[in-house]
From TrEMBL, chains A, B, C, D:
NCBIfam families: HIBADH (TIGR01692). Residues 1-147 form the 6-phosphogluconate dehydrogenase NADP-binding domain. It is found in: Mitochondrion. Belongs to the HIBADH-related family. 3-hydroxyisobutyrate dehydrogenase subfamily. Residues 150-276 form the 3-hydroxyisobutyrate dehydrogenase-like NAD-binding domain. It comes from Myotis brandtii. It comes from the Eukaryota. It catalyses: 3-hydroxy-2-methylpropanoate + NAD(+) = 2-methyl-3-oxopropanoate + NADH + H(+). This is 3-hydroxyisobutyrate dehydrogenase, mitochondrial.
């Protein structure tokens, strides 16, 4: 992502908790600093990308966080996938300092990040969206405005929850059909021309031998890991609990990916749920 | 369906447990007889369409069933949606009488039946498929060979199970997103260009106001009733229990549609699960 | 069970598909015959004990089944755990032959069978209950009349479904508590004096180290196998589907035990669901 | 609770966000103050009882919170049912001020509160337990030490999750049995002498007509409300997500009580899940 900003001619001020991650940029002549606060001192457009809600809170509100030195009028874009209620909290604190916060979680994986083809789902004040899009457009081919702060997260979480549900559903339907005597390729073809069709069945089929170029064709290597899916489903669960929204299948999908993590699937692509269900009874 | 056979010039021999259903055909000059056995006596290509496994067993093996008078070499096509293991049983009994049995459940609804645009999923001996297709092609634009007897049912059941799961998933994701502040149309658009995309989100969206011409735009009238979906999920459940296939979300979907039937949704389209989940807490 | 009848002085006529199982009785001077029909020819009180619905149908209605030679007025007691609707079907056929059928499934395990301490749940005509109790009382300390034919099965199935649910619930609650820092013995003690108390927590606790003399204290050897629990939950599922009864947790419990069977737990006691949930995420 | 402390001779300093709630105590001559901070200024043993985690944080860390004026060496006991991770956070902040924090959630309902028969589950430093017990013993007949801070909450949450699961399981099993033809009282009797036995079946049976003196005998009035159970299950869900503990049935129970709240059951006792499942299909 940072490299794509460089390619578009933006000078960078970089911080990462793992100094090695910055090496390449230092060698390329970019500034590498020693805390988020230092970034905020030198830059007025900042993009953050963190693994958890706690990490994001630390990066913004921690002892050496962005808020310690943020300049008035700065534009702060958080591309982490975190709890939408945390995004809203951060936005409030940023606003108190006279700056602007937007949440802009990303989808598309490592390949899309490299090629600048990510999708960004952006939440925040609509007037600032053009400014955000200028930057995000360097890294993504799709930059979608979703509404007030937190709605970027909401869109991402809802999509991934539906993705998890339809992936498990595809795995269950394919497995049941195979046990009932259907050929997997034929079954996939029938589903894909019928009302069961979904991205998990027609673009990312979880059954080995049905499609080429997907993780199921490569022993579930690469792709979107089970651990990451379990994390996103945890966020969906939290949001649903907070808003009192019933998610009967979403909850169950969360529990299934949680169990897969504990049974050796944590690093496999999330379509390996087919393999998880498939294991045969042995006597 | 029968009218489309007439249009293609086939003379008909008709039986229905409700005599009124035959009136129109009698007036059009077709033969109406008084039992399935009588049909079998006069015709050597027979299509049956019954609501349950028990009804199908009765029509074939009952006291006045087809098997009482079936002619050698007859082609019997059952278009009911029933338990695949029942289809296999019927096929065995039919074979003993020197005739051929194929299961050919249908999808597409009343509109597609009228316009001859049904999809047939056909299971049975491959050599007989051409003969079956000649007839079924008068009623459906898609006639797919699925494999041995029972696989037509299997394909239909697997598709409808995945459909139920992705419909409930779509309803949960849309509802959660709306409660998190997203506009429903925008959320549907985002899902449909992302990995959450499915037939239930892009063709048959369950949220009123998102699409035109679907049951959700018409108070969930018409379409595919909740009772019928609950019935198909019961068949999926039975098949999964018999083959020891885990269907964690499929089972849950079955229970959800079962509950909806008991809570006033039995005659509404199955996309009304959105309304079922949506009902607000009141104090 | 047969030995306890011998002890009470009843002469036996025995049949088993595995001839070796009869050896001991032959040596003890009891009659061993070569089919269920032969038993029916020689005895007028018959007790059957089969693993599945299909086996029971075969034993009664098969080519050499009991119904081929059953004498008028015979009392036929089926102690198999099978689908209540199959029990009702068998009862009808038996009645046609002028004999009486009762379903009397059993609970208590191998130990209780040996010591004559089984529990029998009996369904059938009330006037015949005394006659059934005379025999069943030789093998069980608890013989409970449940109502019309099939209600014995119904009671057993309902009990085992609730047992499965509360066992999984106990395992989930104990596991969650332990991860939250509670001592397992203390947590069990608190649950058992509170409203979470159940047989699975106070008599058969699934957590190793909490109780002595239960399968969890012995690496989940012995007890009631996961495969058998999965079978009984399949029956509960079928009965619920047939009667359109929602069983949200019962369905889920069924799927969980089904998955455990496929993951190496089939021969372990059903309380091993704690171990199944417990497995830690590894990196 | 406060009255039971008065009865034991403790002078009170009282604050409640609803001033009316303090009226009775003012008239009885107790001190009523205008903020949690004012309580902390005047008392060195403080008991808090709040409905949510957010309320508890406000009462301790808010602008007029206890921590603003807490005295060194004070003992702060929080009897709210909240997220154990919040209890731990509060404990840290309290400790920084040189005071002691314990979590002591309560079970038993309004009746037990009045009669001084509550159960307290206490988490915190063991050396302080005796001091806490002196106070809590005035209000409860059972004061159980559970371990480090947060384990009181953990014990309560685990108990209530298991309670919810076994209550729903009891309702499903009773409903299925009734539909299969069993008499409810007889079925309850059989379960209660078998392995399905649990508090929900033998002490608080959810089926009207089975027991006297329980909410099911009184149209589900009184008892423990569905909204409160949904809240506790939300806490269990959060704790499980945070600790990556799979709770397949616990999650499902959460969703079921969530849906009941949206369908008119929010103020009924949580055993009304039987009624919720029971509603008949109508045509």
């Amino acid at each position: 992502m940072a490299k794509n900003l460089m390619k578009h001619g933006y000078p960078l001020v970089i911080y990462d908790v793992f100094p090695d991650a910055c090496k390449e940029f230092r060698e390329a002549g970019e500034q590498v600093v020693s805390s988020p606060a230092d970034v905020a001192e030198k830059a007025d457009r900042i993009i953050t990308m963190l693994p958890t809600s706690m990490n994001a809170i630390e990066a913004y509100s921690g002892a050496n966080g962005i808020l310690k030195k943020v300049k008035k009028g700065s534009l702060l874009i958080d591309s982490s996938t975190i709890d939408p209620s945390v995004s809203k909290e951060l936005a409030k604190e940023v606003e108190k300092m006279g700056a602007v916060f937007m949440d802009a979680p990303v989808s598309g994986g490592v390949g899309a990040a490299r090629s600048g083809n990510l999708t960004f789902m952006v939440g925040g004040v609509e007037e600032e969206f053009a400014a955000a899009k200028e930057l995000l457009g360097c890294m993504g081919s799709n930059v979608v405005y979703c509404g007030a702060v937190g709605t970027g997260q909401a869109a991402k979480i809802c999509n991934n929850m539906l993705l998890a549900i339809s992936m498990i559903g595809t795995a269950e339907a394919m497995n049941l059909g195979i046990r009932l005597g259907l050929d997997p390729k034929l079954l996939a073809k029938i589903l894909n021309m019928s009302s069961g069709r979904c991205w998990s069945s027609d673009t990312y089929n979880p059954v080995p031998g049905v499609m080429d170029g997907v993780p199921s064709a490569n022993n579930y290597q690469g792709g979107f890991g089970t651990t990451l899916m379990a994390k996103d489903l945890g966020l969906a669960q939290d949001s649903a609990t907070n808003t009192k929204s019933p998610i009967l299948l979403g909850s169950q999908a969360h529990q299934i990916y949680r169990m897969m993590c504990a049974k050796g699937y944590s690093k496999k692509d999330f379509s390996s749920v087919f393999q998880f269900l498939r294991e045969e009874e042995t006597f």
